[in-house]
Request: fold
Amino acid sequence: MRSLRSRLGLGLIASLVVMLGLLWMTVGYSVRVLMEEQLATRLEHDAESLLGGISIDASGAVTLDSQRIQGIYRQPHSGHYYQIRIDSQVRRSRSLWDETLPVQEPAVGEARQAFISGPQQQPLLIWTGAYRKQGKVVHISVAEDLTVMRVGVRRFQWRLLVWSLAVVLVLLLIQQYIIARSLRPVSAAAQDIARLEQGEITELHEQVPDEVRPLVHAINTLLQRQQQRLQRSREALGNLAHSIKTPLTVLQQLATEKIPASDIAAHEQLDGFSRQIDLLVNASLRRARLAGDGLGASHFDLYRDLPMLLDTLGRLHHRERSITVQQELGDTRQLPLEQQDGMELLGNLLDNAWKWAHSTIRLTVTADTPPAIIVEDDGSGIDAGELDHLARRGMRQDENIAGHGIGLSVVRGLVEELGGSLTLADSDALGGLKVAIRLGDR
Amino acid sequence: MRLLLAEDDPDLAGRLKHYLGRQGFAVDAVDNGVDAEFNACEIPYDVIVLDLGLPQRSGLEVLSNWRRSRMQAPVLILTARDTWQEKVQGLQAGADDYLTKPFREEELLARLQALVRRSTGTVGETLAVDGWTLDEASQSVSRGEHHWQLTGTEFRLLRYFMLHPGRILSRSRLTEHVYEQDADRDSNVIEVYVRRLREKLGQDIITTRRGQGYVFGRLT
Reply:
């Protein structure tokens, strides 16, 4: 579908062109008709003046009072002609230079006018009247060259056309301005949506025109409901975890207590079971808690959330050793991840690195879109075989994996659920493991 | 060591009270957030175990209120909620450690001992003062070649002395930190146990400051 702007623009152009075209044609035609009517009236007056100058004597001879004839009728091919017929006698103006005007004569008391071609192909308007004078029927025809008038009319029409086009142009500019102005709130809403997708805002501004407001309001309501539902389901999952794990703890401790310490096989089996239940419950809950696209939610902020996470990690691992975290975050401020999703992903990723690092962890966030998250440590790394095993997709979380495995399989599960990809390699810079995560491009 | 256990599951709370009691902690157990908040503000606990999913007032709210009213005891959050968001929230609200369920009792004990040592400024994994070394696992004390087994109350008392060496400790303070809430709280009992420790380990291990209290080692 084309944009509203071009649709409005095209519609307005078309209506303007049609309107001004019709105006141009009507005005041009009317001017021509008006001038021809005026000319015909003048010709009629000339004819009446000629009629007054005609005298017929008793023998029937016709004389024309030359005082009544204007000089223009004497100049050859001047464009002004007359022709008078009384019975068989025909009198022509000198300007006709012996040519005859083709006349269609009306009945007595009537008049008629026509367009004819005169001397030298001049386009003429001819007016013919039939009178009765001194008992004789007198036909008087007066004609005038239309060329000058037509040139005048055409010049007027041209001028009108130029002005019309100029007016169209000015009106179009004004319309474009009005359209742009009226559609500005719509563009603002579109920009809002882009910012929403970037996680910069969590709802759209509702100061928009009445036509758009229901739409914006509906989007906001939807986002709000989605957030509430996410929060409710997260709370419910937290309660579920609570109600499963507390009895699990008691069960585990009770069994540890009741089974004699000498029965090592039973203890191992018990440990295996409770560990498996714990891992499966965790994996399912973790997956269910993910917000996924994070639309309308605040995103993980590297300036706000990361320091808190690093502080927490430092304090939780306080007893083991102190680790320096080198951060190379570039200009990236937000990750394209819902805040809690980001907390979970980076928490597990960094926690795993913390466990295996000797003294240093490096966190790099690249400036790409979407950014890659790279975590390196200076631990002993993992050997090629285990790397291969870990790199396999869809690895089950309940498998008993040593070393980096368990933490990484959690991270892998999260990354896959979020539509990203994970690659493992040796860290050139620090010598340990390098985990690179590329998030799905939404 | 006086310990507050805020846990609403009666089975788990009962087991932990019993287990931690055997490990030399005087345990007060509460099963809701309101009691937890009140108790910790009234009694100078040495360490607190806090469940987040408490009825009446959530653990996180209780914790924030404690820290706002300058309640200084170290707090370990013991919860089934294991997301990083919750861990971050817990530690930002003022917790000192975070342990998720299911857990092993030994793991909890190790973390509690570490928290107590850290809060009293003691460094290292074992408690050693002036040539005396306390073994928390076997509840015994040694000096050079010699080795003494301690009873439960003797161990609690000696540990408190060794965590606060060179300081005058009043009889009421010792009572508060060695006995739980519902125990027989006659402060003369402290006198009896101090005499027993002197008989076992030597007269000069603890000196009496008349009208003030007792001092372990030399007064600083």
The helical segments of chain A are 4-53, 147-198, 213-258, 264-289, 305-316, 339-356, 384-391, 405-417.
